[in-house]
């Protein structure tokens, strides 16, 4: 039983957190109100969010008590986007903040610095970010807290992830989908997720949906998802403290009971996991009203409750009264340190939520055991004569990653119901699809112990993987190319997180976020236009060069080399685009390794320039563009043997960039060695053409690059016809090449006539036989 004194101390600790939260929003001086508040003490720009902060601090204080009493590891995930005042305040009170940032000491000087740095130039953001100790969740965008919580809990059997879900956030589609994560949480091997749905009633300007539901409606909703619902609600602080203590103890006991039952009987459960729904007033304990308009318990407390404090004496008085209501003189001693009896309420060492090891995942990261990728090599006796399915071959390598790491429990494959479709089914020789709901004899490779996370939601796959990586594990997200764009904004937030983390010495590197995009735009035979879209490349390329890497392996051996490199890397977002369909193989494994290390190479066997100045360079990036580029060279060599052609393949897209803009960029001499400084370059590219034009900007004579790629032309058609529709077929590339070589002007008409006749023949054939011409379908490199 908790004593009345302990209860009072918890309340004072909460008041200290609320005081520091308000101070971060308003004060630049007089941090402990040692003198009457003056306009000069107020920041010139009032930024931040007050409305959610008291509730977040209330939960933090009570989780501290639970940790102290049980010794549990608890990860706090703050869903409300701009809850940083509360989370920073609590990290400061427990001492974590000052340990990580010694320039913010635990005294009056430190409190002043804490206030002055918040939402100011050179300071910290107003949302929970990588700067915030204990956080793995970027608060800049709503909807992802709960999915991150489950990702963190996977394979962390001793961890409890307390995830505060804001009621505004709860309206987003990703968050709504995240409740289904219970169907994938195995209590035998995973930790627990404790959702705390914080209903304070309002968003920026309107009410929230769930806050207007009755308790009976909420219970029915969440019971259907598999949760046992507990309510903590009210506005009287002391009553709320007592209720929260009782409920939290009950919830903790139920979590441990479920885990014990599952682990002793090896019986994974889905239903009955507890969650808390906490109803409190918006802006709890803040200003009550202004000019007869309510502030507390209304949307007006969402951000800065009083905005004219610097110029309006009455508002200044109200803010002073508000902050003095927390009695800072009873919370902090004469030096500005938290009172000793309050300090004792926080956990110590790495049990503090701000110092929890998994919240700084690089500190617990174990190296992924990788097989020797050379043993999976495809034999290529001669370029362009043998076919293989590159992703199917890679699946064998992926299968053995699962085998090598089966005792480490630190690798998972995330995929929206596409593992077999993407030809990665070899992994099912060593693991299964994770699923805890009812299973039937007709199911295929389904098990609670499975390590393949398949759910028909790109949001969940991305969020699970992010939470998994940021708590020190490894993974891969395999997806259809067209639908990875669903998580564009999630990726953007994650890339920003990693960029910021790399600038913070205390944040240790985590395993890279690896994407394998297949079933891509150029091979959507039956799905057609809806499944054609390479736009994710544009999203990735626009993020910081310190974070992003983009690869286009043209065959199986280059895919092996690229993926081995990606799995070995840290703190990157690696985008790999590779087809799953049978395709011609170009390079031996040793050639592939060398090619990938360079990023871009001349394929001497394809060209006929023999190292001299070529008349034209045919360049390519992507497996289908590579096929068409090589075939275009064959057309040119056959029809115009005097034309000197060079073929350049790019596997690392950022090699095209000047090194000033990306560390993988080729130096000027290396770029010239590939492309010369004068020869026209006909470039076949997997994605949208402007990307290449942007990358070669600043290179010698960039106007000589003529790019063909995806131009939003598609339908349900044959593989070759997709290239024709987008002006990237071998015949169109050949015509474009000759067009750019002045000395071939006399031969241009003859080549154009030949190519146009081939295109007419193609069109007639596919409309009659619904398949590509045999000479296209069965084409091989014969030189």
UniProtKB/TrEMBL annotation:
- Essential cofactor(s): thiamine diphosphate
UniProt keywords, alphabetically: Lyase, Thiamine pyrophosphate
> What InterPro entries does the entry give?
THDP-binding, Transketo_C/PFOR_II, Xul5P/Fru6P_PKetolase, Xul5P/Fru6P_PKetolase_C, Xul5P/Fru6P_PKetolase_CS, Xul5P/Fru6P_PKetolase_N, Xul5P/Fru6P_PKetolase_ThDP_BS
Return the Gene3D superfamilies for the record.
Answer: 3.40.50.920, 3.40.50.970
Q: What residue stretches are annotated with the Xylulose 5-phosphate/Fructose 6-phosphate phosphoketolase N-terminal domain? A: 2-363
Domain Xylulose 5-phosphate/Fructose 6-phosphate phosphoketolase C-terminal, by residue range, is: 580-781
- One Pfam entry name: XFP_N
Spell out the protein name for this chain.
Answer: Xylulose-5-phosphate/fructose-6-phosphate phosphoketolase
